[in-house]
Amino acid sequence: SMRLKTLQLPFIILISFLLHACSPEQKFYISPDGDDLNSGSKNHPFATLERAKLVIKRNKDKPVTIFLREGYYPLKKSLILTDEEVSGDNPVLITSYPGEDVHLIGGRKIDGFEALDEHSEAVQKIPLQFHKSIRQINLKDLGIEDYGEISARGFGRAIQASGLELFFNGKPMTIARWPNEAWATIEDVPEALEGKGFSYSGNRPAKWLNAKDIWFHGYWKWDWSDSYVKMAAIDTIAKVIMTEVPYSNYPYTQGKRFYAFNILEELDAPGEWYLDRETGVLYFWPPSDPEEAEIFVSLLQDPLIKLNNTKHITLKGLIIEYTCGAGVEIIDGSN
């Protein structure tokens, strides 16, 4: 009987080792056609990453894989994973299902562009010869109310979200601007302006007297330092533009380049657009038939995915797009 007992011991060690090594990996599935009340199996997938987050938390003691099936996943808020949801040593893999395109987006697909409303006040700001080319859509009618803001970002300033942008067949479109291509240059920097503005040549800015929320993007002194500044006022007699605080990150300098944008009066080329933030109407000159195109607006100002102090998380095969803020933000953590 002694001999029998000694034989048992290695078997017990081996079996317990195998059990430990094969702690079963948990697999869950998400699909745009899914339902968060489902079990999360391949045939009964969840609909959202927020729902998958709960099963990640519940299965902290096992490796977890989340498969996303083909399609678009609009995130209205950040997917935030912290060390509360994800325990130290069990890896979490969030991945596209093999061979399928998965899009995590911070925006929405829009359609239903109409001809320009000839009776609206806005229409008078657009030159007559372009009226037939321009379409409009009311975002408020689609339940889209928050457009973010254009902000004074740039070199040496905190990273900020961009505010709503428009995408047509995968390409970002241009907020109505002047000049359409290339740049205008600063004519002079009168001392009396005390660094708060600059003078221009030509008469173009006279068109903008009734425009609200005009912005300039410029390389105001150095070709490695750009910033966005907001217009405060135009004096068309003195041909001077005054800007708001914060002024450019380096002093306005004669001969340096800039362009003006966010101006409905400058909507005069294919691919340009303008959003009236008060009415919610977006005006757009589509580069081709909008009925045949995929058109998105970006909405989410926060990062799409935030990992805070987590370990062993893999994001794989995900297309991250159509958002105003960062794609993925990782703070602390490892592996």
Considering the chains and any ligands shown, give keywords for the structure.
five-stranded mixed beta sheet, globular, seven-stranded antiparallel beta sheet, 26 strands, 335 residues, mainly beta
- The count of β-strands is 26
Major beta sheet summary? 7 strands, antiparallel
Strand content: 25-35%
Q: What is the overall number of helices? A: 2
- Order of helix and strand elements from N to C terminus: HEHEEEEEEEEEEEEEEEEEEEEEEEEE
- Could you give the distance between the termini? 50 Å
Structural class: mainly beta
Low-confidence stretches: none
Shape: globular
Radius of gyration, in angstroms, nearest whole number: 27 Å
Return the average pLDDT rounded to an integer.
Answer: 92
Percent helix range: under 10%
Task: Outline the structure in words.
By secondary structure, this protein is mainly β. 9% of the residues lie in helices and 30% in strands. It is built from two helices and 26 strands. It has helices at 2-21, 49-58; strands spanning 26-30, 64-68, 71-74, 79-82, 92-96, 102-105, 107-109, 114-115, 135-138, 166-168, 171-172, 174-175, 177-178, 184-185, 197-199, 215-219, 227-235, 240-243, 257-261, 272-275, 281-284, 295-298, 305-308, 313-316, 318-321, 328-331. The strands form six sheets. Strands 13, 14, 15, 16, 17, 18 and 19 form a seven-stranded antiparallel sheet that branches. Strands 8-9-21-20-12 form a five-stranded mixed sheet, with no helix packed on it. A hairpin with a 7-residue loop joins strand 16 (215-219) and strand 17. 28% of the residues are buried. The model has no long low-confidence stretch (mean pLDDT 92).
